[in-house]
Specification:
102 residues, alpha+beta, two-stranded antiparallel sheet, 6 strands, 25% helix
C-alpha cells in the first residue's frame, strides 16, 4: 500500500513509499533530511518540540527551496528570493486527493 502525502506549498502529491527523494541539506559535515516545515517552540534542553503551531509537508523541490532560502538568510544573504506557491488542484488532482485520503 502506498503512502501518499500532499505538499502543502505546491500541491504536488508525493508517494513516500516509492523511494522518491527527500531533500537533504548538508552543513558542517552533517546531513539533515527535509520533508516538512514546522513552526513552534523547540526545547533545546530536552531536544523536543514543546508545541507546534503549524506544520507543512514539503515535496523535494519545495523542501530544497525553503531550506536554502532560510539558511541563505541565516548566513547573511538578505536577498531571499522565495516565491509563494499556490497549490493548483485540477479535477484529476482533487480525485487523487479524495481517493488517496490526503
Amino acid at each position: 500500500m502506498a503512502v501518499v502525502r500532499k505538499c502543502d506549498r505546491c500541491g504536488k502529491l508525493v508517494d513516500v513509499t516509492s523511494g522518491n527523494r527527500q531533500y537533504t541539506y548538508e552543513e558542517d559535515g552533517k546531513e539533515f533530511t527535509v520533508n516538512s516545515f514546522r513552526l513552534g517552540e523547540w526545547n533545546a534542553k530536552d531536544k523536543q518540540w514543546d508545541s507546534i503551531v503549524s506544520a507543512y509537508d514539503l515535496c523535494y523541490e519545495c523542501g530544497k527551496e525553503v531550506t536554502e532560502a532560510i539558511f541563505n538568510v541565516l548566513h547573511g544573504d538578505n536577498n531571499c528570493d522565495l516565491q509563494t506557491r499556490v497549490p493548483k488542484i485540477t479535477k484529476k488532482g482533487a480525485a487523487d486527493v479524495a481517493n488517496n485520503g490526503v
